[in-house]
Amino acid sequence: MKLFHTFLTGLVFGVGIAISGMMNPAKVLNFFDIAGTWDPSLAFVMGGALVVTFIGYRLVWRRKAPLFAARFQIPTSTVIDGKLIGGSALFGIGWGIAGFCPGAAIPALGAGRWEVVLFLGAVAVGLALARILQDKPLYSRSAKA
Fold first, then answer.
1. What is this structure's pTM?
2. Mean pLDDT throughout 115-133?
3. Which residues does 100 contact at the CB level (< 8 Å), separation at least 6?
4. Which domain of life is it from (predicted)?
């Protein structure tokens, strides 16, 4: 049942990304082109996501535990350090250059574009490199890794 719900969640996310046009990197890049061909649709997509998330969290936090786990797994650190700032900057730079967010690029694989494969490959290499530099194993089944 957990696998079915995971699939259903991914399907809803992918369909939402496709309908919103966020699989098209030109749409994302046009959002950043304020002085040129600015397209505000990304702001509406993000605003809609914030509304859904706000309501969803209010409903979920009423539960004692999630449906498929013993407890909620939420970040405990409130530290704003160089790793957080550097990672955020790299994410933003990559998003601005490629026009893809990793979350939106995964559903975009279905479009069969080589750019998406190249982008996700670069993301995978970057993640592996970050783990190597932090002296962590490349793969771990632990949720705390």
1. 0.73
2. 90
3. 25, 28, 94, 108, 115, 116, 119
4. Bacteria
